[in-house]
Amino acid sequence: MREFLDMGGYAAFVWPSYAVTLAAIALNIYWARRLLAQARAAARRRLAAQDQRA
Fold first, then answer.
1. Measured distance CA(43)–CA(24) in Å, rounded
2. Per-residue confidence at 53, pLDDT binned at 50, 70, 90?
3. CA pair distance 46, 28, nearest whole angstrom
4. Which tens digits make up the pLDDT trace of 8-51?
5. Per-residue pLDDT at 15
6. pTM for the full model?
7. Domain range annotation of the chain
8. CB under 8 Å, gap of 24 or more: what pairs does 9-18 form?
9. If DSSP codes are grouped into helix, strand and coil, which group holds residue 1?
10. DSSP 8-state code for residue 10
């Protein structure tokens, strides 16, 4: 197990790159969900305004 975690002496480069990749994926998911919620809210506002005019 120690050999795996040491990554053949490259652990100082490998593990931080995994962390950066995981952080980028997590941020991408967070931003996508936030933007989706904003788009849905804007669509609901447009539909409500359209219903009031009709």
1. 28
2. confident
3. 27
4. 999 999 999 999 999 999 999 999 999 999 999 999 999 999 98
5. 95
6. 0.75
7. 30-54
8. none
9. coil
10. T
